[in-house]
Each structure stands twice: as structure tokens, then as C-alpha cells.
Design goal:
647 residues; alpha+beta; Kinesin; 2 domains; seven-stranded mixed sheet; 15 helices; 17 strands
Length: 647
């Protein structure tokens, strides 16, 4: 038996190759604001959990998705509690003050609500998240801020449980009857489960589910491993030592919003919330092989029932698309299909990994899995729409960072020592420094005749330099005026040239506008004519349909009349044939009676003639006996054949 799939991986495939082909496009769509669903499907013990989680030294799809997300948005993450999820599957932006107060309130709690990413990693799962390949999304919008939230739920016995809930996870309790003794028929009361709700965008979500904001891949995987994976239902069966007894769903939500024009604050109006759901389905199994009983038997029945509902939904979707019908898809028959019905209706991309165990004992189950997986490829899911652009100038974050750095540098320079002023001297200071220094002007002796002449000489030198500079300044002013006049004349000529060009362009634009108006009028006229023609066509089509209906009715009437005529002709022919036979028999009977009567008359005449002859020839004739009717009957008279009746 052969089955065809989009991609087939061998037994020696590494996790990176599987991630690059299957999960990497989903992570790229997540950062671009689109939803995605990835789930593993197969019989029990075929490697679904290993594919999703991985092993020490070789992380699976889940840690690699987290690694790629934080490698891509690491430097662009918002501070903790800037994004806040509400209880209606929405997100809002808090101010920096509100986020700071929330962080201080959380730090004041005795027990931290979220595991810290700075603490030493548990060696039990540390090797799974150290991915050697540095994988990231290209062309990440650097003008957005991002926030990552994770949640972890399981669907156990068709009930939804929050694995990250702080309340102690109680095992399922037995039902007690009125005599305060446990019921022996094996019925149980499940603990309080979560409810599914529909948000304003008609997307399904788990109401009251714990959603933890994480800032690193280590913190996210620690939430997954410590808080969630340890609470998941697993059990030992005949086929798998650690068999998953529930469907686990790890949801990664990415909130992103653009910065404002200054690159400082987050815009509330353009928030995008996308999510990636990583689903590890429980394996289908046959109870005669697992030897399950009690709770294990009940779990297996619910697992198989939910997987059968998934198959039914896929088959109904396929039938609706193949045959163009609108048959209702039974999403609500199972919590698993009800939770992800939006993905099948076109709210995101769906990828399924089929895990197959080559064991001979799993032959029949593997054939069923492969047949169903091949059939799912025929179902087409609508492509999600791209998120709208905010319309702001790109590069706002980098410009804001450069501005902050420049302001910090200038503040540092301004706050330095006073003697360290490095400002360049002005032109006036340079002029005063170029003049000869003034000598001392103190007259200590009345007979001093050197100080004043020196002062006069210096002042005369300064006066001469001032006159020279004034003349040079006047020359420069005249030259600058000539340059300005020349520049003004060139500007005026260019303005005149541009005015001429502009007038030509305006004339061209006016001509084009008149042409556009003419064309618009023509278009309106043609549209009016088209509308009239469409109405006329509609009337003619209606008349055509009426005439066709009338023609069909008349043709049907003619056919009925022809059939009635044929039936009447057949009936008349039958009546004519019957009447002809009847009259033929009647004629034969009458001819026979007439012949008998004529023969009797001839016999009477013969007798009379014989008597006359006897009287004439013999004197004493004897009286003949008349033959009796009995003798005539015993000896019938030979009759001559009568001629056929004339038609």
C-alpha cells in the first residue's frame, strides 16, 4: 500500500531538519501576526511526545520554536507587564507607571508567580533548550515592541484542565452515594474543568486559563517543564511505559504593537495578538492489545472518541469542499475539535506530523493513521489575511536611540569640569587677539614722557588696522552685494523659467482635466447605456424564460395529445377488429340458417313433385313417410359450400 505526503522523513532524521521544514514557517507567520497550529498524530508509542519535546542534547520542536522566537524579538521586547491580557482573549497596553507598579507588586509577593529566567537551570531539561543553531526570523519589524505569553492545558477525558494553575492539582475523586460509600460501578466526578468561550472575533479560547509572560526561552521552557509537564496525565500500559493519557496543548501568544512617531510610547490602537498552538495528541490504541481496565480503559475510550471526532470533522470538511454542500461540521462533539475549529475555518495555518512505528504489531493501526492523514491533505483551509500597516515612518526606534545617546553625551559634556571648556572662540575674540596689546597706562611720574607716546603709537596702529579692515570690509560688502545681485538675477531668471514651465504644465494639466472630465462623462454615458442594456437584457431573458416555459408547456401538451391520440387509435382499432369478428360470426350463422331453410323448402318441393309424379304415373300410390327430425340428425345432409360473404 502506498501513501503520498508533502514530506517524508526517515528514521535517522535530526530534529533540526524536521523543524526547518515543518515548524519554522509557522514561527515566521507568528511574528508576522498570523496564527498557526501544529499537532502530532499517530498510534501510541510512535514518538509523538519525543517529536514535540525532544531528548537531552537534541531539543524537539517546542524548544526550537521558543529559541527562534526569542532570537528574533530579543532586543525588541517590551518591559514586563506593559502588555496585559484580559479574560476575554484580548490584550491591552499599560503605561510605564502601571507596569512599574505591577512589577513592584509582584516582587513584593512571598512566592514569585513566574519562574525567573536568571536562576540556574535544572540539569533535567537544560540540555534540551541549548540549541546550537542560531535560528531567527529575517526582516523583523524593529519599530514594534513584543511580549510573549505561554499557557499549557490538557484535555483529559474530554475535560480541559489548566496545568499552570497555582491551585493544587487534585486527582479524580470517586463518586459517593447516600450511604457515604464509594460507588462500585466505576463512575467518577472529574475536578473543576475550564470552559470554552468565543471572543468578539469568533475565536475559541479557554476561559480563566493561566497565561504567563516570559522573557527568555529558558524561562518559557521552565514554565513548560516544571509547572506543566510534571502535572500531565501519563500511565504505564502494555505498549508504552510512559503513555500520554491526555491531549496536551502548549499555546504561545505573541502580542506586538508599534511605537509612536517619536519612538517612545506604544500605540494602543494597532495591537496584534497572534498565537501558535503546539498539540501533542494522545495515541490511538486498542484495548485488547493494551489490556487496559478501570481508569485506563475509560481514558482509552475518551482518547479514541476524540480522535474519531477529529476524523469525522476532517471528512465532513472534505465532503463540503468536494461536492459543494454545506453539511454541518460536528466540532462541538469533542473539546479538542471545538477548541481548534477556527483553524479549520481559515484563521491560521495547520500542520500535522504523522508519527509511524514500523512494528509489525501496529500494522493495522498505522494503515488507518496513514489513510486518514493522506485524506486530510485534500482539505483546503483559507489563508489568513495580512495585518494592516500602522502608516508610520520606519526606523523610529533607531532614531530615538541615537537621540537618547546624543542627549546623554551632551549632558555628560555639560556636567564636566569648568576648565575643560572646548568651545571654539568667536570671530570677535579672534579679531581682538590679533590687535597689538595695549601698554600700561599708569602715570607714576609727572615728567614721564614715554607712556603717552607709546599709547598714542599703539592707538594709531589700531586705528590704521581698523581703517584697513573697514576698507576691506567695505570691499567685501560690495563684492557680496554684487554676488547677491547676480544671485538674485539668476534666481529671477530661474523663477521666470520655472513660471513658464509651470504655466505650461498647468495648461497641460487643465487639458488633461478637461479630457478626464470628458472621459468621465463618456464613462457615465456608457455606464447608463450599459445599465439600460442590462435591464433590456434582463427583460429579454425574462421573456425568453417565459417563452421557453410556454414552449415547454405546449410541447408537453402536444405530447400528451399525441399520446392520447395514439391510445384512441389503438382503442378504435381494437373495437373495429372486435366488431368485424362479431359480424363475421353473425353472418356465418345467418347464412347457415338460411341454407338450412332453403334445403328444407327444396325437400318439401321435391316431395310435392314426387307425389304429383306418383299421382300422375300410378293409380294408387302409397303415402310416403316423412323423415323424422331424429333421422335427419342421425344422417346429416351434405350441404354445398356457400359462397363467402361479400365485404
Amino acid at each position: 500500500t502506498q501513501y503520498s505526503f508533502k514530506e517524508v522523513f526517515g528514521t535517522q532524521v535530526v530534529q533540526k531538519e524536521l523543524f526547518d521544514v515543518v515548524a519554522k514557517p509557522l514561527v515566521e507567520d507568528l511574528i508576522r501576526g498570523k496564527n498557526g497550529l501544529l499537532f502530532t498524530y499517530g498510534v501510541t508509542g510512535s514518538g509523538k511526545t519525543h517529536t514535540m519535546t525532544g531528548s537531552p542534547g537534541d531539543g524537539g520542536l517546542l524548544p526550537r520554536c521558543l529559541d527562534m522566537i526569542f532570537n528574533s524579538i530579543g532586543p525588541f521586547q517590551a518591559k514586563r507587564f506593559v502588555f496585559k491580557l484580559d479574560d476575554k482573549n484580548g490584550v491591552e497596553v499599560q503605561s510605564e507607571v502601571e507596569a512599574l507598579l505591577e512589577r513592584q507588586r509582584r516582587e513584593a509577593l512571598p512566592v514569585p508567580k513566574t519562574p525567573s529566567g536568571k536562576r540556574h537551570m535544572d540539569p533535567e531539561f537544560a540540555d534540551m533548550i541549548h540549541v546550537q543553531e542560531h535560528c531567527r526570523v529575517e526582516e523583523v519589524d524593529e519599530d514594534n515592541v513584543y511580549g510573549v505569553f505561554v499557557s499549557y492545558i490538557e484535555i483529559y477525558n474530554n475535560y480541559i484542565y489548566d496545568l499552570l494553575e497555582e491551585a493544587p492539582f487534585e486527582p479524580i475523586k470517586p463518586k459517593w452515594n447516600s450511604c457515604n460509600t464509594p460507588v462500585r460501578n466505576g463512575d467518577f466526578i472529574p475536578p473543576q474543568s475550564k470552559m470554552l468561550r468565543e471572543d468578539q472575533n469568533h475565536n475559541m479560547y479557554v476561559m480563566g486559563c493561566t497565561e504567563v509572560e516570559v522573557k527568555s526561552r529558558e524561562e518559557a521552557f521552565e514554565v513548560f517543564w516544571r509547572a506543566g509537564q510534571k502535572k500531565r496525565h501519563i500511565a504505564n500500559t502494555q505498549l508504552n511505559r510512559e503513555s500520554s493519557r491526555s491531549h496536551s496543548v502548549f499555546i504561545i501568544k505573541l502580542a506586538q504593537a508599534p511605537l509612536d512617531a517619536d519612538g517612545d510610547h506604544v500605540l494602543q490602537e494597532h495591537i496584534t495578538l497572534s498565537q501558535l498552538s503546539l498539540v501533542d495528541l494522545a495515541g490511538s490504541e486498542r484495548t485488547n492489545r493494551t489490556k487496559a481496565e478501570g481508569n485506563r480503559l475509560r481514558e482509552a475510550g475518551n482518547i479514541n472518541q476524540s480522535l474519531m471526532t477529529l476524523r469525522t470533522c476532517i471528512e465532513v470538511l472534505r465532503e463540503n469542499q468536494l461536492y459543494g454542500i454545506n453539511k454541518m461540521v460536528p466540532y462541538r462533539d469533542s473539546k479538542l475539535t471545538h477548541l481548534f475549529k477556527n483553524y479549520f475555518d481559515g484563521e491560521g495555518k495547520v500542520r500535522m506530523i504523522v508519527c509511524v512505528n514500523p512494528k509489525a504489531e501496529d500494522y493495522e493501526e498505522s494503515l488507518q493513521v496513514l489513510r486518514f492523514a493522506e485524506m486530510t491533505q485534500e482539505v483546503e483551509v483559507a489563508r489568513p489575511l495580512d495585518r494592516p500597516l500602522c502608516g508610520l515612518t520606519p526606523g523610529r526606534r533607531l532614531r530615538n536611540q541615537a537621540l537618547q545617546e546624543e542627549l546623554a553625551r551632551r549632558l555628560e559634556l555639560r556636567g564636566g569640569p569648568v576648565g575643560g571648556d572646548t568651545e571654539e572662540p568667536s570671530a570677535a575674540e579672534l579679531f581682538f587677539q590679533s590687535l597689538p596689546p595695549l601698554p600700561s597706562c599708569e602715570l607714576l611720574d609727572i615728567n614721564d614722557d614715554q607712556t603717552l607716546p607709546k599709547l598714542i603709537e599703539v592707538l594709531e596702529q589700531r586705528h590704521k588696522m581698523r581703517q584697513m579692515m573697514s576698507e576691506e570690509f567695505a570691499k567685501n560688502v560690495l563684492a557680496f552685494k554684487a554676488m547677491l545681485q547676480e544671485f538674485d538675477s539668476s534666481v529671477i531668471s530661474k523663477e521666470n523659467y520655472l513660471q513658464g514651465k509651470l504655466s505650461e504644465k498647468e495648461k497641460t494639466i487643465a487639458g488633461q482635466r478637461t479630457e478626464l472630465e470628458r472621459l468621465e462623462k463618456k464613462i457615465k454615458t456608457l455606464e447608463y447605456k450599459i445599465e439600460i442594456l442590462e435591464k433590456t437584457t434582463t427583460i429579454y431573458e425574462e421573456d425568453k424564460r417565459n417563452l421557453q416555459q410556454e414552449l415547454e408547456s405546449k410541447s408537453q401538451k402536444l405530447q400528451r395529445q399525441a399520446s392520447d391520440k395514439r391510445r384512441l387509435e389503438a382503442r378504435l382499432q381494437g373495437m373495429v377488429a372486435e366488431t368485424t369478428m362479431k359480424w363475421e360470426k353473425e353472418c356465418e350463422r345467418r347464412v347457415a340458417a338460411k341454407q338450412l331453410e332453403m334445403q328444407n323448402k327444396l325437400w318439401v318441393k321435391d316431395e310435392k313433385l314426387k307425389q304429383l309424379k306418383a299421382i300422375v304415373t300410378e293409380p294408387k300410390p302409397e303415402k310416403p313417410e316423412r323423415p323424422s327430425r331424429e333421422r335427419e340428425r342421425e344422417k346429416p345432409v351434405q350441404r354445398s359450400m356457400s359462397p363467402p360473404p361479400v365485404p
